[in-house]
From TrEMBL:
<dbReference type="InterPro" id="IPR052219">
    <property type="entry name" value="Photolyase_Class-2"/>
</dbReference>
<dbReference type="InterPro" id="IPR036155">
    <property type="entry name" value="Crypto/Photolyase_N_sf"/>
</dbReference>
<dbReference type="InterPro" id="IPR006050">
    <property type="entry name" value="DNA_photolyase_N"/>
</dbReference>
<dbReference type="InterPro" id="IPR036134">
    <property type="entry name" value="Crypto/Photolyase_FAD-like_sf"/>
</dbReference>
<dbReference type="InterPro" id="IPR014729">
    <property type="entry name" value="Rossmann-like_a/b/a_fold"/>
</dbReference>
<dbReference type="Pfam" id="PF00875">
    <property type="entry name" value="DNA_photolyase"/>
</dbReference>
<feature type="domain" description="Photolyase/cryptochrome alpha/beta">
    <location>
        <begin position="26"/>
        <end position="154"/>
    </location>
</feature>
<protein>
    <submittedName>
        <fullName>Deoxyribodipyrimidine photo-lyase</fullName>
    </submittedName>
</protein>
Length: 473
């Protein structure tokens, strides 16, 4: 029996990695990694439909590995909170869920031996793509990859690395009617039988095993709780309470008129499609704000996905920095580093605004969007070598941010150095790369109010900056 189509999942989201016909098996397996949720998850619904067609139960597997690239205890804790929500929601639907210790490839190889079909979701970074290729070679059954974390599938939006938002925007906008479509849960016909459940599975409610070799120097934060329930609460609060001010106040860090959903998008605990549909429907009386939000959520976010998908070396200074920027940064007049990395982490620069932004990052795992730009620009200005500045910014970004280590991170840090931007008039310390100055902050917002807000956030965390092993980025 061939793998059937699914009318609820657009054919362009479906990628067959191996095989054509399901093989004899005891269940259909969905290997969940990127899309860590049960709502608006095209991979999950596709797998449920296939299980129904084959009259088989559905098992969802998740590989919890030690040493995930650049992950700290902060990231693991947030993710495990999210997997608790997944556990409860899948159980309510009669779907099995097994978290195994090991990499996604190891988990697929273990659970895939009894699977008639393996479905996986799509990731956009090098190691995620490599895992899915290895996964397809490690199991005897067919493997199908379903894209669910971009509103417009990356290769449908464009077939090449795009220069800027202005070149990608029209390509995405003409496809939105096709992809801004809701997704309903598929009732599972055959409940997953408990005797088939793997015995060695981990319990997410117990957190990360104490035996795990995890970088615990950067610990969990209280500002953000992981999971679908919290993601939906924040999304609805943003749309119902904050959206009316978003278009006019999003760049005022003292106001915090932003969504704060990026950690949930990063871990796949919130679907960008659900966020877009919720804002478009419930925020219809504020069309200007909705348009600005969709620009950030879809165009800008998927420009970042485009960058990491089509640029193999997306995490390097050479790939991120245009030729005009490289040339002018080399002669920008910065002769030595103004601060060592230890001073940056300690928030002890001469700039109180930068210090506040860094404190927000270290203590809460987040930073206001507008301050992220200023934060990165100052790191560039304060380093003699632009390549070293890039590595420092990316290291700090990925280490402390809950939403670090994803396409938005690589594109966001790259933007500091000219990626997806144009040349500007030559400035000391910046060359022709766009500059940002403290005087601009004072002119455009109540920056002292931002400092006060961060101080209050830090007080709520009720802890000092986490101890950090300082080393080369």
């Amino acid at each position: 029996m061939p793998i059937s189509a699914n009318p609820f999942v657009d054919i362009t989201r479906i990628h067959r990695l191996s095989g054509v016909n399901p093989v004899p098996g005891r269940y259909v397996l969905y290997l969940m990694q990127q899309s860590q949720r049960t709502r608006f998850n095209h991979a999950l619904e596709y797998a449920a439909r296939q299980a129904n067609d084959l009259a088989l139960p559905l098992l969802v597997g998740f590989g919890l590995m030690e040493g995930y690239p650049e992950a700290t205890a902060r990231h693991y804790h947030f993710m495990m909170e999210g997997l608790c929500d997944v556990t409860k929601r899948l159980e309510d639907r009669g779907i099995g869920f097994a978290i195994l210790q090991g990499s996604p490839v190891q988990t697929a190889a273990t659970l895939g031996q009894n699977a008639a079909l393996l479905v996986c979701d799509r990731g956009y970074l090098r190691h995620q793509r490599r895992w899915r290729k290895e996964m397809s070679e490690s199991v005897p059954c067919p493997v199908v990859e379903i894209e669910s974390d971009a509103v417009v599938p990356v290769e449908c939006a464009s077939g090449k690395r795009e220069y800027a938002a202005r070149t990608l925007r029209p390509k995405i906008e003409r496809l939105l009617d096709r992809y801004l479509i809701g997704l309903s849960p598929t009732p599972v016909v055959t409940p997953f039988p408990s005797p088939l459940m793997p015995s060695e599975r981990l319990d997410p409610f117990k957190g990360v095993p104490k035996s795990f070799k995890v970088d615990r120097d950067v610990g969990p934060v209280k500002r953000f709780k992981g999971g679908e329930d919290e993601a939906l609460r924040r999304l609805r609060h943003f749309v119902w309470e904050t959206l009316p001010r978003y278009a006019t106040h999003r760049n005022k860090p003292e106001e915090n008129a932003i969504s704060e959903i990026s950690p949930y998008l990063h871990f796949g605990q919130l679907s960008p499609l659900e966020a877009a549909l919720t804002a478009s429907h419930d925020g219809a009386t504020h069309p200007e704000a909705v348009a600005v939000f969709l620009e950030e959520l879809i165009v800008r976010r998927e420009l970042a996905i485009n960058y990491t998908w089509f640029e193999e070396n997306y995490d390097t200074f050479e790939a991120a920095t245009p030729a005009w920027a490289v040339e002018t940064l080399a002669g920008r007049g910065t002769s030595k580093n103004l601060y060592a990395q230890e001073q940056l982490i300690a928030c002890t620069t001469h700039d109180p605004y930068w210090n506040a932004a860094m404190a927000e990052m270290i203590h809460t795992g987040f930073m206001h969007n507008y301050m992220r730009m200023y934060w990165g620009k100052k790191i560039l200005e304060w380093h003699a070598d632009a390549d070293e500045a890039y590595k420092t910014a990316l290291y700090l970004n990925n280490r402390y941010f809950l939403d670090g280590r994803d396409p938005n991170s690589y594109a966001g840090v790259g933007w500091t150095f000219g990626l997806h931007d144009r040349a500007w008039p030559n400035q000391p310390g910046f060359g022709k790369v766009r500059s940002m100055k403290a005087s601009g902050l004072k002119r455009k917002c109540n920056i002292e109010g931002y400092i006060e807000r961060v101080e209050e956030l830090v007080r709520k965390e009720k802890k000092r900056p986490p101890a950090t092993k300082v080393g080369a980025p």
